[in-house]
Each structure stands twice: as C-alpha cells, then as structure tokens.
UniProtKB/TrEMBL annotation:
Stated family: Belongs to the 'phage' integrase family. XerC subfamily.
HAMAP family from the UniProt entry: Recomb_XerC_XerD
Keyword Transmembrane helix part of the UniProt annotation: no
Pfam families according to UniProt: Phage_int_SAM_1, Phage_integrase
Any single Gene Ontology cellular-component annotation: cytoplasm
The organism's taxonomic lineage, starting at the top: Bacteria, Bacillati, Candidatus Margulisiibacteriota, Candidatus Termititenacia, Candidatus Termititenacales
Organism: Candidatus Termititenax persephonae
Keywords: Cell cycle, Cell division, Chromosome partition, Cytoplasm, DNA integration, DNA recombination, DNA-binding
GO molecular function: DNA binding; tyrosine-based site-specific recombinase activity
PROSITE patterns: CB, TYR_RECOMBINASE
Protein name: Tyrosine recombinase XerC
Length: 285
C-alpha cells in the first residue's frame, strides 16, 4: 500500500472510529506527512530506524512537539498492524529521546497590561485579548466560541477543547465588560452576524490565522519585543495564576489539560521568577 493511501485510511479511522475532531486529525496528518516524507519505505522500517528518525527531529522543537510527532507515528503503526498491513509493529515501545524541556515564554504582568491598555485597540480586539488572558483558551478554542457560550450572569465561558471536550472557565470582570462593550459598539451593528463571538467586518467568524495576526500586530504596536502569539497569553495566565497562589489542579481545569504533568511546567516558570526576584533583592547576592 502506498503511503498516501495508508495515511488516508488511518485518518478515516481516527475520524469515524475514534471520533477525533478535524483539528486533531489534521495535526496527526501533518506529523505523519513529515514522517513519510523522511521515511518513504515506512513498511520495511524496524525499531532502530524509527529511533533514528526520532533523533533527527529538529533540535528547536519543544519536548511536547517531539512527543506528539512520535505519538502520531506510534498510532499509525498500531493501526497498520491492526489492519494486517504489516506483520509486526516496529513502533511498540518507541519513546521520545531525552531532551531538555524548555520553559514556555511568558509575558510579565506589566507587559500584559501594556498590551491590554493600548489605546488604539478596537472594541473587538480589546475583548479578544482580554478573553485570551482571562480564560487562557487555545486559539482554536477562541475561534470556535459562540455568543451563546458566554454566561454573563454567572461569569463563565463554555469552551470546546481537544477531543470535543467541553469545560467551563471563569470569566474575569474585565473580560466580561470588554465583551459587552464589543457587542454594544461593534458586533451589534454588523448586517448579518454569524453565531461565533468574534467576527470580521463582513460578519464571518475569525479564523485562527486572523487571531494570530491580530495578536502579533497589537503586541508589536504596544512595544513588546518578545515573540508573542495567542498561546503566549495562555502561558502567561497559567504562570501568573500560580505566582499568585493558585493550585496546579485548578489551573489544570482552567486550561483543559488532560495530564497534570503538562500543567506542572508552569510551576517551573514560577520558580524561575522567584529566583530572579530573590537574586535581584537579596543583599548578599
């Protein structure tokens, strides 16, 4: 079976049998296209060959990205074995190489306020940034939020996360006020608004790419030199919550992490912050 046909069958399996969302299936597809491009003889590879592939993944990738790519490879080979396309599974027991897990880049509280306080923001963009920082949602989650998902009375937001899982996230008073202002001054005046919360001038939902560009533009306009993206606000929220005393389990619920180990990386960021403050303030440093 050629690689394209095998990948197509695997994606159908993920979508119709496993019930994966289109975004998750596409993420698997992208990782496997990279793998198949580098390993076209995928049907004849053994475990040492797969381990060698893992070692050739770009050094700049974060540990989570490497682990995700290898998880896609393992799932692919498990499927091929299940379908009797291969006689044995060479990916069984495949693990990610030992890498240094890099801490995520975050904004300081001052930098966050600097962006949110920028005077040139439209009501929509201000609400968008306030929501990113208030709820810590992924960019794909933000693009999918509908107006009906915002509970102003209870100050909660319904978020659809990975695997179509839903969670309720607290909505800060500032984010709630910014969204109301956007509804009153801009969104309510659109001729045929869609169901999504954040819309373009034509009334269509903002795409993930559009949100990314908005964040980039506004961060640069606020004089932020860091490489800022929508996910930077998610990292920043988690770090600031832990710095202010929030427990890891609560932050895990807010972010929608399936594994608490993913959330615990922010405790490392917070410890690094404590070290910097200590080094700057201690009289005998």
């Amino acid at each position: 079976m050629n690689a394209a046909a095998a990948l197509s069958k695997f994606l159908e399996y993920l979508t119709y049998e496993r019930g994966y969302s289109p975004l998750t299936a596409e993420a698997y597809a992208n990782d496997l296209r990279h793998f198949l491009k580098n390993c076209p003889a995928y049907l004849t590879l053994d475990k040492p060959a797969l381990e060698k592939y893992a070692e050739t993944l770009p050094a700049h990738l974060e540990y989570s990205s490497v682990a995700r790519k290898l998880a896609a490879v393992k799932a692919f080979y498990k499927f091929l074995y299940r379908e009797d396309i291969i006689a044995s599974n060479p990916a069984a027991g495949l693990t990610a190489p030992k890498l240094t897990r890099r801490l995520p880049q975050v904004l300081t509280k001052k930098e966050t306020e600097q962006i949110l306080a920028a005077p040139a923001l439209s009501a929509r963009d201000n609400a968008l940034l306030e929501l990113l920082y208030s709820a810590g949602v992924r960019v794909s989650e933000l693009a999918g939020i509908k107006l009906a998902d915002v509970d102003f009375a209870e100050c909660f937001l319904k978020v659809r996360g990975k695997g179509s899982k839903e969670r309720l996230v607290p909505l800060s008073s500032r984010a709630g006020a910014a969204i109301r202002r956007y509804l009153d001054t801009e969104r309510g005046k659109l001729p045929k608004p869609g169901a999504e919360l954040f819309l373009s001038r034509s009334g269509r939902a903002l795409t993930r790419q559009m949100v990314w560009l908005i964040v980039k533009r506004l961060s640069a306009a606020a004089g932020i030199l860091k490489n800022t993206s929508p996910h930077t606000f998610r990292h920043s929220l988690a770090t600031h919550l832990i710095e202010n005393g929030a427990d890891v389990r609560t932050v895990q619920e807010i972010l929608g992490h399936a594994n608490i180990a993913t959330t615990q990386i922010y405790t490392s960021v917070s410890r690094e912050h404590l070290r910097r403050v200590y080094a700057a303030a201690h009289p005998r440093q």
